[in-house]
Amino acid sequence: MATLKLEIVTPEAKIYSEDVDMVTLPGVEGEMGIYPMHVPLMTQVKAGEVSVRKGGQDYFLAVGEGFVEITGSKVAIMTDMAIKADDIDEARAEEARKRAEARLGEKLNEEETATVQAALMHSLAQLHVKRRTRR
Fold first, then answer.
1. What is the pLDDT of residues 69-87, one digit of tens each?
2. Angle at the Cα of 91 from the Cα atoms of 64 and 63, rounded to 5 degrees
3. What is the average per-residue pLDDT within 56-71?
């Protein structure tokens, strides 16, 4: 069976680099499923969940906003945040969500609002992934 090379990188590090069977990611126009031999594509990724199918098992990661480049044999995601489900601290993510929601109630300029909204989306993505894997 053909596979894809999935690489997920952040400004800090390469978070994931493995051959996988399928990737599902949160594109700006909706969820995208990518199999080997996918048509080449470059698009934006929004904060959310990346699902990886490898050897009949599913693995999950929380990602922030970024870009993805897809070729027939590779998926490269460049994002501002990527955390494997097992590495997510649910209590910290919940606390970050509450702080961000409280800050949105304050009077903020456009730049501060964008920063707080990004932090909120990061925490919500982490909570979604962590709670999914707990089921």
1. 999 899 999 999 999 999 9
2. 10
3. 95
C-alpha 2/C-alpha 90 separation (Å) is 35
Decide: 74 and 17 in contact? Cβ < 8 Å: no
Closest CA to 50 of 24, 72, 76, 16: 24
CATH architecture, range 4-85: Sandwich (2.60)
**DSSP three-state, residue 106:** coil
| SS3 assignment, position 3 | coil
Report residue 10: phi and psi, to 5°. Answer: -120, 175
pLDDT at residue 1, rounded to an integer: 72
Q: Are 116 and 103 in contact (CB under 8 A)?
A: yes
Class of domain 89-134: mainly alpha
CA 75 to CA 69: how far, in whole Å? 6
